[in-house]
Amino acid sequence: MLIAIEGIDGAGKTTQAKRLVRWLKSEGVNACYTSEPTNSALGRLIKKKLRSKDLDHRLDALLFAADRLEHYYGCIEPRIRKRQVVVSDRYVYSSIAYQGALTGDVDWVRAINKWVPAPDVAIYVDVSPEVGLARLSSRKISEKTKYERMETLSRVRELYLKMCSEGLLIIVDGERSIEEVQGNIRRITMDALVRAGLLEADTAGRR
Ligand code: ADP
Ligand code: TYD
Fold first, then answer.
1. Which residues pair with 33 in a beta bridge?
2. pLDDT tens per residue, range 57-109
3. Using a 6 Å cutoff on CB, does residue 72 contact ligand 2?
4. Which of 94, 96, 111, 189 could share a disulfide with 90, CB 3.0–4.6 Å?
5. Is the C-beta atom of 6 inside 6 A of ligand 2?
6. How far is the CA of 63 from the centre of ligand 1 (A)?
7. Which ligand 1 atom sits closest to the C-alpha of 7?
8. In terms of pTM, does the model score above 0.90?
9. Which residue has the higher pLDDT, 87 or 138?
10. Dihedral, CA atoms, 63, 69, 75, 81, nearest 10 degrees?
């Protein structure tokens, strides 16, 4: 099973995804954490470009899609085949939201990502750009990405919210405490695991 954790910069995705994996493991579920952009050669190139000023959003979209293709078939799918629960810190909806907003062509971004399947569950951690940026403000300037701007993140958030209203992602309020957000994410995950037969309903009911 593939669970994607999505949201704008500073939403708390990494914090939540890592906690979720720790908790799943403690419950005896064979789970692992992964993230995009990845640490492959392509992923490293993307990370370098994210810290540059160049603004060819079409090229970025193609690079993210290529990195994802390699990530899915080289890493995620083999783990799913071994019945692992893979929690991905960002996946295809990041491209639709970010590169969709920046190129203005959501359909094209969807099309270049059509070679990877949708996740089984996608959770959108919602925060306002003000909150996201404030949480990241202590990071070093050199670590900031070119998307960390109020105006960009507002447009990205709008696209995420639209996808939530279309039923593609399940929204959780990311402005609550880390523990509250985690509780909501665990509930959504548990339901999905029970439905997939990876967790007993009565075991889940005890929590
Ligand atoms: P993302 O991966 O979405 O960019 P992180 O998980 O790296 O976000 O979190 C960014 C910063 O915000 C970190 O310093 C983290 O400790 C803090 N943070 C995460 N979630 C919350 C929360 N619910 N409330 C307050 N601070 C949070
Ligand atoms: P990430 O390392 O998850 O940053 P953060 O922890 O701040 O959320 O992602 C780096 C940047 O890459 C982030 O600004 C979002 C962007 N991104 C895209 O624009 N499209 C994509 O498909 C992905 C995976 C990431």
1. 87
2. 999 999 999 999 999 999 999 999 999 999 999 999 999 999 999 999 999 99
3. no
4. 94
5. no
6. 26
7. 3
8. yes
9. 87
10. 160
CA distance from start to end of the chain: 21
Centre of ligand 2 to C-alpha 9, Å, is 7
- pLDDT for 202: 67
Which residue intervals of the chain are DSSP H helices? 13-26, 41-50, 57-71, 77-81, 92-103, 106-112, 129-136, 150-165, 178-195, 201-205
- Ligand 2 pocket test: which of 5, 9, 18 has the largest number of ligand atoms within 8 Å of its C-beta? 9
Amino acid present at 128: S
Give the tens place of pLDDT for each residue, 6-60.
999 999 999 999 999 999 999 999 999 999 999 999 999 999 999 988 779 999 9
Ligand closest in space to the Cα of 138: 1
Burial (CB < 10 A; 0-12, 13-18, 19+), residue 107, is exposed
Contact 178 CB / ligand 1 (< 6 Å)? yes
Q: Is 11 in the pocket of ligand 1 (CB under 6 A)?
A: yes
Whether residue 89 contacts residue 34, with contact meaning beta carbons closer than 8 Å, is answered with: yes
Ranges 34-38, 58-62, 138-142, 179-183: which has the least confidence: 138-142
How many other CB atoms are there within 10 angstroms of residue 59's CB atom? 11
Q: Which tops the pLDDT comparison, 142 or 187? A: 187
